[in-house]
Amino acid sequence: xIYLNELRRKRFLTSLLNYFLPEEYSAITISDFLxxxxxxxxxxxxxxxxxxxxxxxxxxxxxxxxxxxxxxxxQSEVEKPGAIEVxxxxxxxxxxxVVTKEPYSNYIxxxxxxxxxxxLYDAILVYHPKSDLTFLADYHSHGxxxxxxxxRDATSTQMRAPAYSS
Length: 166
Known about the structure:
Number of helices: 4
Distance between the termini: 33 Å
Largest sheet: 8 strands, mixed
Strand content: 25-35%
Oligomer: single chain
């Protein structure tokens, strides 16, 4: 796992960003994150954007993961405000439980809960080491092949968009 804030400190202009941004890491796979999650430094900043992630760190996953909804039996019920929804993301190396609703989904405008079995590209996780909770903060569902409008249209109809073939 790569500590991105350390890379920014090596240059003067980018080191100034460290005062405003939360602690950020890049993990190739989920098992890469799980092996080194005890070394994660948490954000302790009071400047804008960084203060939203106090006592947490951002984790960027480089490889795509598959999302599985663990709340299938509750989908028929009326959604309760403030309810916690849990899902599982997995890749070829490991799996991880993530919270898909509250509190970070409210910060990202238009973040749509992923569908069961959906592939998530460029997933961003918020990890809280004290409580050992991981939140799904953002993702792309089509690996950059579709525009955001096409992604929202595909997920709003609860159908997967057809994959491009070469």
